[in-house]
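Q: We require from you a single protein entry containing the residue sequence and its fold in C-alpha cell form, and nothing else.
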Amino acid sequence: MSVTTAPPSDSTEPQTSHDSTAPGEEKSRGLLELRSVFNDIEETAAPLVASPPVEKFLITVIVVVPLIACGYGGYRLGQYGLMSWLDLGLLLGGWYATGLGITVGFHRMLAHRAFDATGPIRYFWMALGSLAIQGSPLMWCAVHRRHHQCSDKPGDPHSPHLHNGGVWQIIRGFLHSHTGWLYSPYWTDPRLKKFIPDLMVDKQALAIDRFYYVWIAVSLALPALIAGLVTWSWHGAATGFLWGGLVRACVTHHITWSINSVCHVFGKQDYQAGDASRNNVIFGFLAHGEGWHNNHHAFPNSARHGLKWWQFDLSWVLIRGMERLRLARNVKVPAANMLSGRRL
C-alpha cells in the first residue's frame, strides 16, 4: 500500500504520493498527474456552453420519473402493502451494488485514481457505476474533478455557498447543489473533457462510456427480469421494475447528491480542506463511506475516507479486501504526518 507523505497542501490541489519501495523518489499519483493539464485549462469561472434542450429533457426524465415512482411506491405500500421480500431485496441489493459502483468505481478508482485494479475488476466497477444512472463514467469524473479544483469557489459545479443573500438564497443554494446544478452547463459542456485526458485514452473507460444508454436500459430491465422469472408473472416483473429499478434509482440518486448538498452544509470539519466540506455521520453510512466528506477533501487521492476507527467506510473495506486478494494495487492512504499536519 502506498502512503501519502508530502507536506499538507490545499485540498483543491492534487497531493504528492511517494512509493514506499523507492524512498526519496517522487512519483505522480492520482490527480497529481493532471497538474500540468489543470494549469493549462482556461479560467474555471468562464461561461460554459449551454446544455441543449434534448439533454435538459433527458435530465428531467432521469430526475423526475424515479422520484414520482418513489412516491407511487410509498402510496402503494401504505394503501395495499404491495411490497414483497423479493422487491425489498432488489431495492436494497440494487442500492448497495450501484451505490458502491459510484463510490468505488467512478469516484475513488477513476476520478481520483486512489487505487488501480486489474482489467476485469475495472470493468466490473465501471459497469456497476454506470448502472446507477448518474451520468457516464467520463463525464461524471470530469464534473467531479472540476468540483475539487474549484470547491466552494466560482466554477464549482454544485456548491451550495455561491448564492449570497438571505434565507431564500441559502435555500436556493442548497437546492442548486442537490439537483439544480444538473441543468447547468457544467454537466454537458464538452470542454469538461479537458479534465479527463487520462480517461480519454483509457480504452476500458471509453468502452463502458460508449454504451452508457445501454447500461441505463439494463439497470431498469434487470430487476424486472429477475422478479418476473422468480414469480413467473407480469405482476412480479412490474413490481420488480418499480422497486428494484425506479425506486432504487431514486434512493441512490438522492443519497449521492446529498454529498454535494448536505455534506457541504451540515457536519463537522476535522481537517483543513480549504472549503466547506464536512463529515456527516448519517451519510457516512448511507453513502458507503462518502459522507466522511471533509476527510476526502483534505486528502482527495486517499482510497480511505473514514480515517478514524469508528468512521465506517464500506467502500474502503472492499478496496482493502481487493488489495489483499491482489485484485487492487497502488492503494493510497495519507501518512500519519499528513493527518496530524492538517488536523484542526
About this structure: The first helix runs from residue 35 to 40.
